[in-house]
Amino acid sequence: GHKGTFGRLLVVAGSLDYAGSALLVCTAAGRAGAGLVTLAVPESLQPLFAAKVVEATTLALPEDDLDQVEPEGALARILDHAHDAIVIGPGLRPGLATVELIRALLGVDEDGTPPAVVDAEALRSLAAEDEWWLGVRRPSVLTPHTGEFERLRAASGIAAATDGDLLGDDAARVTAASDAARRWGQIVVLKGARTVVAAPDGRLARATFENPAMATGGTGDVLSGTIGALLAQHLDPFDAARLGVFLHGTAGEAVRDRLGDAGLLASDLPFEIALARKRLTAVRARQTAERKLGFGARPATTGPAGPVTGGPAEPAGSSS
Predict the structure, then answer these.
(1) Sign of torsion, CA 40 45 47 52?
(2) Residue 66 CB neighbour total at 10 angstroms
(3) How confident is the model over 223-256, as pLDDT tens digits?
(4) What confidence category does residue 285 fall into, taking pLDDT thresholds of 50, 70 and 90?
(5) Taking residues 292-307, what's their average pLDDT?
(6) Nearest C-alpha neighbor of 253 from the set 219, 284, 283, 230
(7) Rounded distance between C-alpha atoms, residue 123 and residue 120, angstroms
(8) Burial level of 51, CB count in 10 A (0-12/13-18/19+)?
(9) What is the mean pLDDT of the chain?
(10) What is the pTM for the complete model shown?
(11) What is the tens place of the pLDDT at every residue in 80-120?
(12) Which of 12, 17, 43, 48 maximizes the CB count within 10 A of its CB?
């Protein structure tokens, strides 16, 4: 293979106030296996970001006289850039120009349109319009936290608190995410403790992770980059979402084991995501070879001193 074999991810993210969001997305995407990552930013900020993203390339988006992205020109430049998936939203500058660009990007409906991860400012921009999902034609993975999720539902005509406590009630979270995925026709990742991943066709996954150390700025950007990288590697959107949540949560647990419940930085996660993927690949290889994981007795054999029961134990593994 070569770098193009493993997926080209385009990231539309970042602003002067939220430069870190874009950098975290790009780093996480590389650590999750994307072959090529390109960061699209306003042309006035390109020198700043180009000096920070070492492995990623940059794409300058045209601006108007107010130093805002010019939606029509930016859309043309993005669509002209070859990519297998796109991440839209983390750290973008709020404003009408951003809203227009996001709606145009998500409204593309052509054969082979690359899928998108929609997060942060992109979600807030969608929620500003009633029945917003009718204009989202690109296959998408929506990654809202509870507040963003409630805003999206309010714009869908669903009153807040109709399903119970969406922070602490697992059953309520599952019901709400499942209903939203069916209504909106997209994959929904409802973030938080025990993140829920729901598909329009009824498929559902709930993570087991409850990690207070992850409650820090930028961890959601890392998740967006991870899922985006998996989409770029041509995973089905539901599979990319739940695998991304698993790798992200496993990485967080590894950092928590070292640091405890506080002190985790979002930038600690990408390297651990690469290690989590390595461990998961090893588990799959062992399963493919029909070798059982865990500790267990083997059939008795006869050694020089007589019968021997058991044998060298397999290393304990983890499963998801």
Answers:
(1) negative
(2) 8
(3) 999 999 999 999 999 999 999 999 999 999 999 9
(4) confident
(5) 46
(6) 219
(7) 5
(8) exposed
(9) 90
(10) 0.89
(11) 999 999 999 999 999 999 999 999 999 998 889 999 999 99
(12) 12
CA angle 24/27/32 to nearest 5° reads 120
